[in-house]
Write a structure and sequence with these properties.
It is built from ten helices and seven strands. The chain is α/β, with parallel strands linked by helices. It has a seven-stranded parallel β-sheet with strand order 3-2-1-6-4-7-5. The longest helix is centred in the middle third of the chain and has 21 residues, at 146-166. It is globular. The protein starts with a strand and ends in a 9-residue tail after the last helix.
Amino acid sequence: MLSRIRIVLVNTSHPGNIGGAARAMKNMGLSQLVLVDPAVFPSAEASARASGADDILANARVVPTLEEALVGCSLVMGTSARDRSLPWPLLDPRACASKAVEDAQAGGEVALVFGREHAGLTNDELQRCHFHVHIPSAPEFSSLNLAAAVQVLAYEVRLAFLALETSVPAAPAEPVAELATAEELEGFYGHMEAALVDIGFLDPEKPRHLMARLRRLYSRCRMERTEVSILRGILTETRKAARGEPYKRKD
């Protein structure tokens, strides 16, 4: 189950933090590390800070974009240390871990995303997340070291996993429908934006926060793959209608 929970570090500046994060992961039984455009990697400093978690570093995937790091994920949660202009569903570390383990148990791939040491995640990156996670540190000194933040969430994931292991087995549940993956949702959002431009509802020169608000709406829904397919079918016919093409029902 824990192998389906990946730690994603975005544009990490200091290789020592990558090593510290790898050690925190191994301490808590996590193994899947994805690095998005790190400043320096591989690195002797990362290996030194890993202190025995060299296998995590050796198996880490390095990708150029967050989009590629999230391929296959049905649940994405990004850490955020400050308030944003557009509020997003917010979780504390314990609730985040509970959701992560629940989705992983159901067979989903989960990503816990951490931003840059100096600036965290951008608004665009956070909009790719279903939930934001805030670690309630002391307000007079609220900035956590990146590896320490990974340790906090990894520890909570470990607790949630152990609680599940020791709980009384429940009766077999009904099959759970497959949730849409991150890349399927990005395709849907791109399709929807194009359709809204076609019908004149969205002005690409003055988009305001329309797409961000729609992302927030659909993120709350946790859409299934079949639901995304239905909506994309509607968008396809909407774009055809905007071009004056007749609708042909498919029985």
